[in-house]
Amino acid sequence: MRMFITYLFMLMVVAVYADNYVKDPEPAILEAHYTRIQITDTTQRHTHFSKDPVMLRVGATKSLFCGVKRLWKDSLAAVNPSLESEIYIATLEENKKNGTHNLPGGYYWSYIYKNYPDGCLTERNYFDGERRIYEEEWEKPQWEVTDSVKNILGYDCFKAIAPYRGRRWTAWFAPEIPVQDGPWKLCGLPGLILEAYDTNHEYSFTATGLWQNGIPDVGYMAYDDKRGVRKQHRNKYFNDWWRYKNSNFGAKMNALYGNGKMPEKKDTAPKYDLEETNYPHDFDMGGNVSEWVQDWYGHYSEKTQRNPHGAKKSDIGKIFRGGSWNVIPDYNNPGCRFVSNPNFKCSSIGFRLAE
User: Fold this and answer.
1) Which strands, in side-by-side order, build the sheet including 111-114?
2) Mean pLDDT to the nearest integer, 274-289
3) For a tag on the chain, would you pick the N or C end, based on fewer CB atoms within 10 A?
């Protein structure tokens, strides 16, 4: 509890100096804090889970949902990067000393914006070494309100149920708080959602506090956009996450840079899914035949680049990507590159037809 209060206090202090990083700001009318619990191994749910403080900041036209620790980390890195780095290193040393697994930025890294831009939902995250963002039409759950009532934080809350994004959700909302919003992407009830969980209790959100005064503006948090953000289609975004969670990261890096020995193959398939499950669960273009690409082999620049052309020529060879029927699953993704003489021919290299 003391650690959470410290994070909250530092977040408020940093927010005073971080206004320049907030795009399209508007005054906040309410901020709700929740505890988010995610089961990370459904076969060992009592010991394998993450627990994070998260927050919903609501304005007149839009809202932001994100991790409290992640917002603190990103804002601190923007206004005082040296202090953020010191805290990060100190946390790692403390983990090593105590055998803990704490992250300064917590385990929930998504930023979710409802009605931003107008009529859209935007999600931004960082995984597999990239900052990613997508926009989609703002789809609200179609709730069925029941007669069940229980008290949360002193408010009488009513129970509602809805299928949404591949799961069946239960929400408890407070009509006394006339805000049609809630944690994650849940919203659309005649009152603020103070508790929510899916049928299997793999995800849950429980309100811990409400604030109406001294709240920073609601807007798009552009703390590290200058480092580059990859804009994607929703299905591509989630499919990339799925492939990332199914991949062997060490093998991927070795294949990419040609360093070291292939690590021992282990069962790396995730034993959990996201809050939403209605997206393509596949390996995209992998597993058929590899394809030649335009790039010749060459070392990547250490500088940030947009659409790099790479080497114009190489004595080593040309690049082919995508994996094929005769390689291990770790290599069946576009991130793995291979090199050969462009005149080389075999049954595992070719091209794909697409509609």
Assistant:
1) 144-152, 155-164, 167-174, 192-198, 203-211, 28-39, 49-59, 63-67, 111-114, 120-127, 130-137, 230-231
2) 73
3) C
Q: Is 33 helix (H, G, I), strand (E, B) or coil?
A: strand
Residue 182, CA distances (Å) to 20, 28, 111, 191 in order:
27, 15, 14, 9
Strand pairing class (318-321; 290-296)? antiparallel
- The dihedrals phi and psi of 222, each to the nearest 5 degrees, come to -105, 45
pTM for this entry: 0.73
Cα 142 versus chain centre, distance: 25
Task: Return d(Cα 340, Cα 342) in angstroms, integer.
Answer: 6
Q: What is the DSSP string of 343-355?
A: T---TTEE-----
Residue 224 — very low, low, confident or very high, per pLDDT cuts 50/70/90? confident
Q: Which residues contact residue 243 at a Cβ distance below 8 angstroms, ignoring those fewer than 6 apart?
A: 283, 284, 286, 333
**Closest alpha carbon to 279 in 173, 183, 150, 136:** 136
* CA distance linking residue 321 with residue 271, whole number of Å: 28
Nearest residue to 75 via CA among 12, 5, 4, 126: 12
- Can you tell me the mean pLDDT for 278-286? 66
- pLDDT score, position 1: 45
Contact status, residue 156 vs residue 270, Cβ threshold 8 Å: no
Q: Please give the pLDDT value at position 276.
A: 95
d(C-alpha 76, C-alpha 89), whole Å: 14
Q: Are 52 and 107 in contact (CB under 8 A)?
A: yes
How would you class 91 by CB atoms within 10 Å of its CB: exposed for 0-12, middle for 13-18, buried for 19 or more? middle
Alpha helices per DSSP H over 182-335: 234-246, 249-257
Region 42-65 average pLDDT: 92
- Which one is predicted more confidently, 336 or 216? 216
CA distance 49 to 248: 21
Beta-carbon count within 10 A of 174 CB = 24
> Does a cis peptide bond (omega within 30 degrees of 0) precede residue 117?
yes
Q: For 301-325, how does the pLDDT look when each residue is reduced to its tens digit (9 = 90+)?
A: 767 666 666 677 887 888 877 777 6
Output the six-digit token pair for 122. Answer: 């935007």
